[in-house]
Design a protein that fits this description.
The complex is a heterodimer. Chain A is an alpha/beta fold. Chain A is 29% helix and 26% strand. Chain A has a single domain, classed as HUPs (Rossmann fold, 3-Layer(aba) Sandwich). In chain A, strands 9-8-7-10-6-1-4-5-11 form a nine-stranded mixed β-sheet, with helices on both faces. The N and C termini of chain A lie far apart (62 Å). Chain B has 26 helices and eleven strands. Classes of the chains: A alpha/beta, B mainly alpha.
Chain lengths: 258, 676
């Protein structure tokens, strides 16, 4: 199979996040980036598919801090090819990012071979709506399924499992090539020892592929970034159940709720 | 009279003896050649450094066998059987050479009076020892002693050797006219008993006894390298080549390796030759199994079994074909991953092994292979991921490492910015674990009160890598080590003090300081020195009985037993020892990365729970003193799960010191440690 895994770097929330002086961007002093969690699953899913059905795994990223480490880790895990598109991820909105990635994939092959799967993560902490994958599918004119948690490829198609709210699951048949937003892989992402990553750093190479810069980096203008503002405090009602009930009724009446 | 001068079925004795000797030595030699050939297939490691020290180590532990005496019932008997073996083996060879070369102008050994007496005395001592050994095997076998037919057969054979000597002497005396001698007291006794035997018959019997003796020894020679008694040949070499002879035993570094060992061993050939030699040396005595906390708790690990499995697998695969496809896999088929992961690396096994086997490094080699395959359980994987990214297992930002200092009420120096005498390497648990935060602050306060000039690396410190290395993630260990060494190189200090014994061990014994190793001390050692120098302001005398738990990495790994006890005495406390004290201390179960793993096995009793029950049983002891942050976590949990709350309290040594050094105004009502 021909598997493309799209990796995205997101701010590491273990570090303290602060708003920069411009009131819009994140303060870069303590900011660190890490691989988006669902993307790690997308990579794992691709590696599992490769192990089962053969093929080639290409990981693709836009340029971002610490991204090389992530690419080498992916190579150490078993990816065959790592591609970095020299466009600063931080400057692109989701629409533009999808456009850049689509341009790269079109340049790879048009049309994409029928055993191709493009696997972005289903969402990212700065793209909770999970827009990237459908935008990309649209740009490539390929079918799309999101929140995928299982893939069974067959000749020219794949059966994919998708999770719905309330513990429901759905099965879809998708014609290939397709874009599948991955929620979770069949198995938890594997561990790759540091020694293997180091070996990859020595022996493997990250490919840089030039793509035309998007004409509109952002579709939306960001006005303000801010931390949640504390609004009042909870009041704990104490006393016997009767007292608490009386007090509760009082409050509800006072606020015209009843 | 020469016992070789006989004629058996038309065959002269001399020809017979030559034939038997050549056959036995031939088979023996062939087998040894085979076994050495197996060892040579293992990976190289240099265990040839400092031969003189090694020789001293070997002489002490082979000839005097202090470790055999760590089990009283069999200590002396084994010692006597061993020395009997030495005496008899020497005389056998003497006898054999004299028999094979009749023209040599020397007597047979039993014709020399002193030797004869020696042989008789030893035969009695050995016979008594054999009786003890057999009785132990039959009626009082300790758990995990391998009760093989093999062992009993050997005991019988040794018995035959002793009896044939005594009866040989007896019949010889009778055949030579019945002149008893004080040099052969037992032979003389037997001669009296058989005095009625005709001279000719006695002569024949004496010869028969000599031949019986020689044939049994020759049989023994052939049988030995095929049995567990191979240990008697291999163990002296095993002791000679043991790491403890020249280096700290807990250092997992391998000298002179020619291959990259960081990916571990998937096949027996990927173990080092010394690790393979361990299998030949194992006497199946079960000491390690009896000491192992994992075994006692019902985890699937038995250190002795592990050694034996490697040995049997090597012999099967290496000598009896079955290589390549279809061959059994060392990991997965011969040894299950769950065995490999159960080890806490507490070193109780290695500490009691009488042949100085090295089980922990073997287990780590196997773990390295699992890690290199990514075969790592989920929780452990998360921890390793955290350590890679943040340098600590808690998955917190490295900038939060010294957050506790902000509420410590002290201004603690940054050793990267100003020179200090002591660099305090605080470690992960003491820095990040909320259960330890208060103890860490108190330790800092005590240091400050004692006027210690100390500082921290602050966010420059990383996990020292002890557990990482023992989990088998060698690459990550190297990464953490290098980052720490870089940070330390920029700091100005004279000595290092650590909170965590695991960190202590690794900084002290596993970091390459390139000849500039600073003195590394555990905080209990520093406190002991401060107490001795009268620098600890002991404002309040504590009283009461406490017990102290020796952390594995402080005690067994580094021999620090007295410093913490000295501090407790200085505080005014009475230390009551647990039955498993000092180098027999019972592991809490956290080491070797176990603290990061889930208990998926159904086990009987966690090691920490066993330990707490042991302590609770001590009369009048309500305080369980520890000197390791992981112990706080493990034992406070165990106190709850054993329902011992209220009966015993787990206290860090530093807490008790802080209590005694607290300024008098802080409340002088309570002087009992457990009411703190």
């Amino acid at each position: 199979m021909n598997l493309y895994v799209l990796l995205k770097m997101v701010p590491d929330t273990v570090e303290e996040l602060n708003v920069a002086a411009d009131g819009k961007s994140l303060d870069s002093e303590f900011l660190r980036f890490k691989l988006n969690d669902p993307d790690e699953h997308a990579l794992e899913q691709a590696l599992l598919l490769k192990e089962k059905h053969g093929g080639k795994v290409t990981v693709v990223t836009l340029d971002a801090p610490e991204v090389d480490d992530v690419l080498f880790t992916a190579l150490a895990k078993g990816a065959d090819r790592a591609v970095k598109l020299p466009v600063n991820q931080a400057e692109l909105g989701t629409v533009a990012a999808a456009r850049v990635l689509a341009d790269f994939l079109k340049a790879e092959a048009t049309p994409l071979p029928p055993d191709t799967l493009v696997l972005p993560g289903s969402y990212a902490i700065d793209d909770l709506e999970g827009e990237l994958a459908p935008l990309l599918a649209t740009a490539l004119e390929l079918p799309y399924v999101g929140v995928v948690c299982g893939i069974a490829p067959a000749e020219g198609k794949a059966t994919v499992r998708k999770e719905f709210a309330g513990g429901l699951r759905g099965e879809f048949e998708v014609a290939l090539p397709a874009v599948l937003g991955i929620q979770s892989a069949d198995k938890p992402p594997r561990y790759v020892p540091v020694a293997k990553v180091r070996a990859a750093m020595k022996s493997a190479r990250i490919e840089t592929v030039d793509v035309p810069p998007p004409d509109r980096p952002r579709q939306l203008e960001l006005e303000r970034t801010y931390k949640p503002e504390a609004a009042g405090h909870a009041e704990m009602l104490e006393g016997s159940p009767e007292e608490v009930a009386d007090r509760l009724v009082e409050i509800l009446v006072k606020n015209s709720a009843i | 009279m020469d016992p070789v001068n006989i004629n058996l079925l038309g065959l002269p004795g001399l020809v017979l003896l030559w034939a038997l000797a050549l056959l036995a030595w031939g088979v023996f030699g062939f087998r040894i050649w085979q076994l050495v050939g197996l060892l040579r297939q293992g990976r190289y490691e240099n265990r040839f450094d400092q031969p003189v020290r090694r020789l001293g180590h070997m002489i002490r532990h082979v000839l005097l066998q202090p470790r055999i005496f760590n089990e009283r019932a069999i200590g002396l008997p084994h010692f006597l059987i061993f020395w009997g073996f030495l005496v008899y083996a020497t005389c056998f060879n003497w006898s054999l050479v004299r028999g094979l070369f009749p023209f040599l102008p020397v007597p047979y050994p039993d014709e020399v009076k002193v030797v004869s007496l020696f042989l008789e005395v030893f035969s009695v001592l050995v016979l008594i020892s054999l009786a003890v050994a057999v009785a132990r095997r039959l009626f009082f076998a300790p758990p995990h002693l391998h009760l093989s037919l093999d062992a009993n057969l050997i005991l019988v054979l040794i018995g035959v050797l002793m009896l044939s000597t005594l009866f040989g002497n007896g019949f010889r005396i009778v055949s030579e006219g019945g002149h008893t001698s004080a040099w052969t007291p037992l032979g003389s006794l037997l001669a009296k008993a058989f005095a009625a035997t005709p001279t000719e018959t006695a002569h024949a019997w004496a010869n028969a006894m000599w031949w019986l003796h020689m044939i049994v020894v020759l049989f023994f020679l052939v049988y030995l390298p095929y049995s567990k008694h191979l240990h008697l040949l291999a163990a002296p070499f095993n002791v000679f080549f043991s790491q403890s002879a020249t280096r700290p035993v807990g250092d997992l570094g391998v000298l002179g390796a020619k291959e990259d060992l960081s990916a571990g061993a998937a096949r027996w050939q990927e173990l080092t030759w010394r690790q393979l030699l361990g299998g030949f040396s194992c006497a199946e005595c079960g000491r390690c199994d009896r000491a192992c906390p994992a075994t006692a708790s019902g985890y699937p690990l038995q250190p002795q079994q592990l050694i034996q499995k490697v040995k049997e697998h090597m012999i099967h695969a290496g000598l009896h074909g079955r290589q390549g496809n279809g061959a059994q896999k060392l990991i997965g088929e011969v040894i299950a991953p769950k065995e490999i992961w159960a080890c806490t690396t507490c070193m109780a096994c290695m500490n009691c092994c009488a042949v100085w086997n090295e089980q922990v490094p073997l287990i780590v080699s196997l773990r390295r292979h699992l890690v290199s395959e990514g075969d790592v359980e989920r929780t452990l994987q998360d921890m390793l991921g955290n350590l890679q990214r943040y340098g600590n297992s808690f998955g917190k930002s490295d900038r939060m490492r010294a957050k506790w200092t902000q509420t410590s009420g002290l201004k603690i120096k940054d050793a990267r910015k100003e020179a200090v005498e002591y660099l305090w390497f605080v470690g992960d648990y003491a820095s990040y674990d909320p259960r330890c935060e208060d103890i860490t602050k108190k330790t800092a306060q005590v240091f400050a009160q004692a006027g210690l000039d100390f500082g921290l690396l602050y966010e420059g410190e990383r996990n020292a890598g002890n557990d990482v290395r023992r989990v088998g993630e060698e690459g990550l260990f190297e990464m953490l080590r290098d980052k720490n060494l870089q940070a330390l190189a920029k700091a100005k200090f004279q000595k290092i003090v650590t909170t965590d014994p695991h960190t202590y061990h690794t900084l002290k014994n596993e970091y390459p300081w390139n000849g500039h190793r600073p003195e590394v001390q555990h905080y209990t050692e520093v406190l002991s020195q401060l107490a001795q120098a009268g620098k600890l302001p002991l404002n309040k005398k504590l009283s009461g009985r406490v017990t102290y738990h020796d952390p594995c990495y402080l005690g067994r790994y580094n021999g620090v037993y007295d410093a913490p006890r000295h501090v407790l005495h200085a505080l005014g406390l009475e230390v009551i020892e647990m039955p498993r004290g000092r180098d027999r201390s019972y592991c809490c179960g956290a080491g070797g990365g176990r603290i990061w793993m889930e208990d998926t096995e159904k086990i009987q009793e966690r090691p920490a729970e066993s330990r707490i029950r042991e302590a609770v049983a001590l009369a009048g002891v309500q305080t369980f003193v520890v000197a390791c942050p992981k112990d706080i976590a493990m034992f406070r949990d165990a106190v709850k799960t054993t329902g011992c709350e209220g009966k015993i309290a787990v206290r860090d040594l530093a807490e008790l010191v802080a209590k005694a050094t607290a300024p008098p105004a802080a409340g002088n009502a309570a002087t009992n440690p457990q009411t703190a």
